[in-house]
Amino acid sequence: MKNTLTLTALLASFILISALRSNAQNFIAAKAFVKDNNVYLRCVPNNNTTLSDLKEKGISIKRIAWEQNTLPDTADFKQATVVFSIKALTSSDTSWSERFKKNEEAGFVYNLLFKPTNNNVADIDVVFGMAMLSCNFDVQLSKTAGLFYADENIPKGIYAYLIQAADNKYASKIKPAILLVNTGINSQLKKIDSLKIEAKHKKVNLFWNEAELKNDYAGYFIERSEDGKNFIQLNKKPHI
Predict the structure, then answer these.
(1) How many degrees, rounded to 5, is the angle at CA 213 between CA 128 and CA 217?
(2) CB-CB neighbours of 189 under 10 Å
(3) pLDDT tens sequence across 56-88
(4) Helix, strand or coil, per DSSP, at residue 41
(5) Which H or E run includes 221?
(6) Where are the alpha helices (H) located in the chain, listed in sequence order?
(7) Would the N or C end of the chain have less CB density within 10 A of its end CB?
């Protein structure tokens, strides 16, 4: 029977693609995903220094209604009445044990936050990148690391979010993220319509345009079916 192949993207599209690095001012990057009046916010510090500065007091998230076409600046959030805060759990919190059991990559995040092995910049960069990537594929791990927030049951409308360091000492040092969100419109993922198949000698190669999809997907699950109805997932971890 002729096989039918499908490519299913990992449905965690509110995540960022990878850890961001920059030699410029330290900053927080963020992305929002809207579904049924819920706004899911994924935050990523641009390097390990920024992450370390955020670790103790975490991130402050402010929300205001915003009807203008331009992004607000930080001064517009001074009168914000909706304020949330997120931060990494302490090293002794038992939730870490649960994360270790369910996701072995949680160790990258834990070690980065609490047990840096050395001061070698290149090594820290690798661990930082793996830690942020691990958070991309595990919402609970991202929450445990203080890098994810779900703002739920919001009335339909246009809102602006200010995502900045909660510690005033770092608020001016670390550039914040500002996002504009319309809760009346669900976020849409880009369709994966660039899939090409090359079959030869009992071997199938799959090709797709990752560059066109990188703003929506961080990784992919690949499934195969012999009848077009029942699919078997071929990879245990997302293909990146």
Answers:
(1) 50
(2) 13
(3) 999 999 999 999 988 999 999 999 999 999 999
(4) strand
(5) strand 220-225
(6) 48-55, 95-102, 106-114, 121-136, 139-144, 168-171, 210-213
(7) N
Q: What are the counts of helices (DSSP H) followed by strands (DSSP E) for the chain?
A: 7, 12
According to DSSP, residue 175 is labeled B
pTM (predicted TM-score): 0.85
Phi, psi of 32 (to 5 degrees): -115, 145
Cβ atoms of 82 and 62 within 8 Å: the answer is: yes
Instruction: Report the C-alpha gap between 79 and 72 in whole angstroms.
Output: 13
If DSSP codes are grouped into helix, strand and coil, which group holds residue 31? strand
Backbone angles phi, psi at 104, to 5 degrees: -65, -25
Residue type, 79: Q
CA distance 219 to 239: 5
Output the CA angle 93-98-99, nearest 5 degrees: 95
Q: For residues 63 and 38, what is the distance between their CA atoms, to the nearest angstrom?
A: 13
DSSP-based three-state secondary structure for 197: strand
The DSSP code for 167 is S
